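Q: Here's a chain of 276 amino acids. Please give me its 3D structure as C-alpha cells.
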Amino acid sequence: MKTQNEEPAFHFISGLPRSGSTLLAALLKQNPRFQAGMTSPVGGIFLALLEAMSARAETSPFMDNDARQRILRGLFANYFATSKAQVIFDTHRFWCSKLPALRLLFPQAKLIACVRDTNWIIDSFERLVRRNALQPSGIFNFAASGTVYTRASTLASSEGLVGFAYDALREAFYGEQAQSMLLVQYDTLANNPMKALAAVYDFIGEPLFEHDFENVTFGEGDAYDGRLGTPGLHAVGKKVRATPRDTILPQDLFERFSDDSFWNQPGKNTRGVRVV
C-alpha cells in the first residue's frame, strides 16, 4: 500500500475493442497493489483539457507547456486521489494516439495494447447485436436499420469504434515511443493467461503475482453496457478459457479483414515492439 505522499506508478491499457482489455483489467485488479478497470472518464477529460488549453482559447497567451503539463498531471492525481494502489492502469482507446503526451507526463509509463484479428473483432460485435436482437445498440447510434455489412463498415471506418482504435494502434506501433508499448494478443490471453501476464509484469518491472484464472470477477460494466443498449459488452467469464467457434459473418465479409494483423507480419515490426 502506498504512503500518503507517495505517487503511484501510472500505466495505460489501450488497443483494439473486443480484444481482451476488460479481461486483462479484471485479472490485474486481483493484485492488491494494482488498480485497473474498464474505460475511465480520464481519457475524455484529458482530450477536453487539451482543447481547452489550445490556441483556440482567448486566454491561451497565459498558458505555456509547463502549465499544461501540471494541469494534465493534476487530472490523474486528483481522479485517483483516493486510490490505495501503488500501480494504476487507466484504460482508454485514445491512449494509443496520445503516447507522446503520456510519455511527457509519465516518462516511466508503459502502454499495454490488446490486439486481435479484425475479422474476429467484427464477428464478436455482430454476436452482441444478434444476442440483443430486440435492443438497438448505441454503438450504431441506436439505429434499428442496417445489415451485417453496414454494421461492419461503420465499425471499420476511421471514425468507427474499430477503425479509430486500429489507426491509433498503428500510430503508436510505428511511432518514436513504440518501445514503451507491449502488444497482448487476445489468443494468448485466452489460451495462456499466465504467459500473457508474465509478459506484462516483466514489461512494467513489477514482481509476478499469483493470479486465479478460475475465479475472475468483474461487474463494473453492467450499468454502462445497459445504458449503451448492448448488454454483455464488458462481460467477463468466471474462468479464463478460449472457446473455439465458427464465424457468424458471411465468408466474403470475414475475408475482407483477414490480412489486418500487421503486428504478426514479417518485416512490419520495424520498431521491435514486443508482442506476446
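Q: Can you summarize the key feature?
A: The two ends are 29 Å apart (CA to CA).
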